[in-house]
Write a structure and sequence with these properties.
The structure holds two protein chains of two kinds.
Chain A: E1 3-10, H1 14-21, H2 31-47, E2 51-56, E3 71-74, E4 78-79, E5 94-95, H3 98-110, E6 116-118, H4 125-135, E7 144-150, H5 160-175, E8 186-192, H6 209-221, H7 223-226, H8 231-238, H9 248-254, E9 259-270, E10 273-282
Parallel strand pairs in A: 1-8, 2-7, 2-8, 3-6
Antiparallel strand pairs in A: 1-10, 3-7, 4-5, 9-10
Chain B: H1 18-33, H2 37-45, H3 47-51, H4 58-66, H5 69-74, H6 79-88, H7 93-101, H8 105-113
């Protein structure tokens, strides 16, 4: 049976990726953020998951308004960094895990989660920046990766409740995995996006750290209550792009009802965003 | 007219719902085309000719050519799409954030360093004075 090493909630701010790619981590603007996340990187290095399931959103890269799957699961052996308008990030290609990904597809659909199955999909900063956050700049990513892409660009995104339920269905799939490498396979799950931020309109630049703190508290202690927060409350209180936070509930759903908080960080600003990083594990 | 939504009273915010998406489909798909380097080069060479390949309204076309970042949203643009045009111009999200909220990119960046735009006074239209760009400096 697979082993759940933990759940990671993290922002996926493109400027963080650019700071890493361009060697700016030690500049005064960036150093406090990178200093703060160092313990999380050490945790990741110690835990060494074999597979990371990364729940993220595409930003008009692999998908566009032409086709908008609410939940899409990447089953390919490899995913390339996307060109988002300035050429692809110079980061390693992402190695998938087709055997486990196809098991997830079969289990989820059998569990009435009618997920979209994707064989060809470039991955953008929504997926690669969380890898850079946790791993820095390795030659190759030290794990295999299963992308789960959630629509949060075209309103309405799925509800927090649906995301929590999806996470629980993924957990049932992981618990029933009997693939060739299943015994002791170490799996981490990422929920990405957020925290409070608004990129658009006259209200651009909105930050609400009180919301961010309350969001994390409730995600940890009362996910079944926290997931009921209406979309309009995210938009109003956490900014139009803060609604990405629903994806953290997928991560939370994979974990046990009771979790321990391993690490928490919130830093304002990275670019236009309140940047959060949270690590949870099943209660010991 | 489409029914009102409970987020319509949030100031300075263009929720990209079905109403916006219908209006902005071709505009956003033009922006999407800029993911391809060959298309970026064609657009740089002759913007007006390149736009002829997309079914934009006249106001949308003008907003693209004038880089009217706020106008693009009001005409159905989505920020993740319109930002591809800003990337082509070498602008940052803070430059665009400033342009949409009536300050310079530098002033916008400083507002972020100072903690960002405060939520206080920015939840609802008419909630208090300064629901728009000036409110950020109160944080």
């Amino acid at each position: 049976m697979t082993q759940i090493v933990g759940g990671i909630g993290t922002s996926h701010v493109p400027a963080v990726g650019a700071a890493i790619d361009n060697g700016k981590q030690h500049e005064p603007y960036w150093r406090p953020y990178f200093d703060k996340i160092q313990p999380a990187r050490e945790w990741m290095a110690a835990e060494q998951p074999d597979v990371c399931i990364i729940v993220y959103n595409d930003h008009a890269s692999a998908f566009s308004l032409r086709l908008i799957p609410t939940f899409a699961l990447g089953v390919a052996a490899e995913f390339q960094p996307a060109d988002e308008g300035y050429g692809p990030r110079r980061v390693p290609a992402v190695a998938g895990h087709p055997e486990l990904a196809w098991h997830l597809a079969e289990s989820l659909i059998g569990d009435e989660f009618d997920i979209t199955i994707v064989n060809e999909m470039d991955v953008d900063h929504g997926l690669t920046v969380p890898l850079s956050v946790m791993y820095g700049e390795p030659e190759e990513w030290p794990c295999r990766i299963i992308p789960i892409c959630v629509n949060v660009i075209q309103y309405p995104p799925p509800s927090g409740k649906r995301c929590l339920s999806l996470g629980r269905a993924i957990r049932r799939a992981l618990d029933s995995y009997g693939g060739s490498d299943a015994e002791g396979l170490r799996v981490a799950v990422f929920g990405t996006g957020g925290m409070s931020h608004q990129l658009q309109g006259e209200r651009a630049g909105l930050v609400n750290t009180a919301f961010d703190t309350a969001f994390m508290d409730k995600l940890i202690a009362e996910p079944d209550a926290g997931c009921l927060r209406p979309h309009t409350e995210y938009i109003r209180e956490a900014g139009s792009e803060g609604i990405e936070l629903v994806m953290w509930f997928v991560m939370r759903g994979v974990l046990d009802d009771r979790v321990d908080e391993v690490f928490r960080m919130n830093h304002v600003p990275t670019s236009n965003t309140s940047n959060g990083l949270l690590i949870l594990r099943n209660a010991q | 007219m489409a029914a009102a939504r409970d987020y319509d009273d949030i100031p300075g915010t263009y929720v990209f719902d079905g109403r916006q998406s219908q209006q902005g489909y071709h505009l956003n798909m033009f922006c999407m085309s800029l993911n391809d380097e060959a298309n970026r080069e064609r657009f740089r060479t002759d913007e007006a000719a390149y736009l002829d390949g997309f079914d934009l309204t006249s106001p949308q076309r003008t907003a693209v050519l004038k880089r009217d970042w706020l106008g693009l949203l009001q005409l159905g643009g989505n920020i993740y799409y319109t930002f591809k045009l800003a990337i082509l111009d070498g602008l940052s999200m803070q430059d665009v954030g400033g342009a949409m909220s009536g300050v310079t990119g530098g002033e916008f960046a400083q507002m972020m360093i100072d903690g960002g735009r405060s939520i206080e006074g920015n939840r609802r239209v008419g909630e208090s004075a300064g629901t728009h760009s000036s409110a950020g400096h109160t944080s």
